[in-house]
UniProtKB/TrEMBL annotation:
One of its GO terms (cellular component) is cell outer membrane. It comes from the Bacteria. This is Porin. CDD domains: gram_neg_porins (cd00342). Gene3D superfamilies: Porin (2.40.160.10).
Length: 308
């Protein structure tokens, strides 16, 4: 579904006018834009790039007896003006559901629990170094039902069911077991194991772990994917690390993807953030992809991010 700016503005105004008796509604978002030199393998060029900038509405209402209705409607907004007319606002996670002692059930468009299992290990998510550049499994799917159990001793089960939505379609399932807090504020370690079955033509499995050691935040992912149609598989790993001091955070990560036929692909990204405020940062990064059977890729960028 594509929305015009006027429709989004109308939705914003109607959301602002919601009375307190109808439940709480929060407006949130992120503006992230970079100036960068990009080389996709055919030569370098300069560009201004919007990196998954977004606006969203979320909220809910207490229904009594420990039951709550919750919703989210999030849209990606193109701030660089590069998209075709009418395509500058696109769907992100959008759902409605119920939450209670049983956990929560959500219906709509949503990230699979395998995608969610990465937590905050990918330090360059939504940028050129995002792990989706080398791996399958970073899926936001329509027609989903997602269930998450209550946390028990730090553990939580998550399941995403993707309806086939057509006579010749194929149901898909994503399952994950989470441990700890992905923000590492309520636990010292975050970990997850997740599997996809028949999701966008692939089966996949991931093991993720992240924790803090001597001031560093260290993370790792082991990943495997198999194409359902021909059985070809890819195995890889990711390692990330960051260290903060004063207003500066330096970070880096490496990622690999080893294909059945011997094709080896790897990515490396290093960068730094400078906090102007809790909501705003300046940042820079350099990403390089080494690809055996294709041209290498390189990206050098500096940008600004504002969260609200």
């Amino acid at each position: 579904m594509k929305l015009s700016y006027s429709i989004l503005a109308a939705a914003l105004l109607s959301t602002l006018s919601v009375s307190a008796s109808a439940g709480d509604v929060d407006i949130y978002g992120k503006a992230n834009v970079t100036v960068q030199s990009s080389d996709d393998g055919t030569g370098s060029y300069s560009e201004i790039k919007s990196n998954a900038s977004r606006i969203g509405f979320k909220g809910g209402q207490d229904l009594g007896n420990g039951l709550e209705v919750i919703f989210k409607a999030e849209f990606q907004v193109d701030l660089d003006g590069d998209s075709d007319k009418g395509n500058s606002i696109t769907d992100r996670n959008q759902y409605i559901g119920l939450k209670g002692n049983f956990g929560e059930v959500l219906l709509g468009i949503n990230d699979t629990v395998l995608k969610q299992s990465q937590g905050k290990v990918d330090l360059f998510s939504d940028l050129n170094g995002d792990i989706k550049q080398l791996w399958k499994g970073e899926n936001r799917m329509s027609d989903t039902v997602t269930y998450k159990s209550p946390k028990v001793n730090g553990f939580q089960l998550g399941v995403t069911y993707i309806a086939e939505d057509a006579l010749d379609g194929q149901d898909g399932t994503s399952m994950a077991l989470f441990y700890g807090d992905k923000a590492l504020k309520k636990s010292k370690i975050y970990a997850a194991i997740a599997v996809d079955s028949e999701v966008k033509g692939y089966d996949a499995a991931r093991l993720t772990v992240q924790g803090k050691l001597a001031g560093f935040t260290l993370g790792a992912i082991v990943h495997r994917q198999e194409k359902v149609s021909d059985g070809s598989d890819v195995e890889g790993f990711l390692f990330s690390a960051k260290y903060g001091f004063d207003k500066i955070t330096v970070k880096g990560q490496v990622q690999t993807a080893n294909y059945d036929g011997g094709d080896h692909r790897s990515g490396m990204t290093v960068g730094a953030d400078y906090a102007l405020a809790k909501s705003t940062k300046l940042f820079a990064f350099y990403t390089s992809f080494d690809i055996d059977n294709e041209a290498d890729q390189d990206y050098l960028a500096a940008g600004i991010e504002y969260k609200f």
